[in-house]
C-alpha cells in the first residue's frame, strides 16, 4: 500500500529525512513512534501530498505520487493522477479541523457529496451510520462547540472514513485531548484496527495502545527507522540503547 524509496526532505538547511525507505503492506496496522521532531508527521504529510519531497519515490497502492529517476531527477505525478492517488488516503490530525458552523452530520456528509459525488440522501444516510459507529448516533445535529474534544475527534474520524480511504493516517489524534477523553478515541481506533482491512499508519505516544493494536511498530530517530518489528519485540526488547532510553522515558511519564 505504501512504498517509499530514498526519500529526502529538508527544511532549509535542516535535513529531516535522508534516504528513507518504508514499505507498508495492504491491511497492515503500523504504529510510528519516536522522539519529538524525528520526522513522523513529515512522513504522513508526504503520503497525503501536503508536503513535497526533495528526492525519492513515493507510491501509494502501486501508483506513484513522486518518482526519482536513476539520474536523480524528481518527477511529480500529473495533477489528475495525483488527485486520484490521494483520494485513497485519509488523514486525521491532532486538531480536529471541523467546520464550526456545520453540525456533526454536515461535517461528515458534505465532503462525501463533494469528493465522492454522492447524492445528498445517500451521503446523509452513510454519515449517520458512520457517526453511530463512532458512538455519536445521539449527537448528529450538534455543532462542534457543543461537543467535547473526544467527540469532535470522533466526528473527524467519521468524516475521513466517509471518503472510503484504503490508507488511513492518524497523527497523534489524542494529543490535544484531556486525559479522560483519550480512551474513547483510542477505542474507536482499536475497533477500526481489529474490524477493518484498511491500512493504518498511526503516529502515537500511547505506547501501550500501539502495542495492543499494531501488527508492526516502527521507531524513528533523527529521520531514520531504527527499529522495525512486532510490538512484542520492539517494545520489550529494542536493539538500540537510544530506543530503550526513549521508551523508558515515555513509559515513566
Ligand atoms: N514547514 C516546516 N518548516 C520548517 N520546519 C519544519 C516544517 N515542518 C516541520 N519542520 C521541522 O521538521 C522537524 C520534524 O518535524 P515533524 O513534525 O515531522 O516531527 P515529529 O516526529 O512528527 O514530531 P512531534 O512528535 O513533535 O510531532 C521538526 O524539527 C520541525 O520543526
TrEMBL record:
ABC transporter domain span: 2-247
Membrane topology: Peripheral membrane protein
Keywords for the protein's UniProt record, in alphabetical order: Amino-acid transport, ATP-binding, Cell membrane, Membrane, Nucleotide-binding, Transport
InterPro entries found in the cross-reference section: AAA+_ATPase, ABC_ATPase_HisP-typ, ABC_transporter-like_ATP-bd, ABC_transporter-like_CS, MetN_ABC_transporter-like, P-loop_NTPase
Main location: membrane
PANTHER family with a match to the protein in the record: AMINO ACID IMPORT ATP-BINDING PROTEIN (PTHR43166), GLUTAMATE_ASPARTATE IMPORT ATP-BINDING PROTEIN GLTL (PTHR43166:SF9)
Family recorded in the similarity comment: Belongs to the ABC transporter superfamily.
Protein name as annotated: Amino acid ABC transporter ATP-binding protein
UniProt organism field: Alsobacter ponti
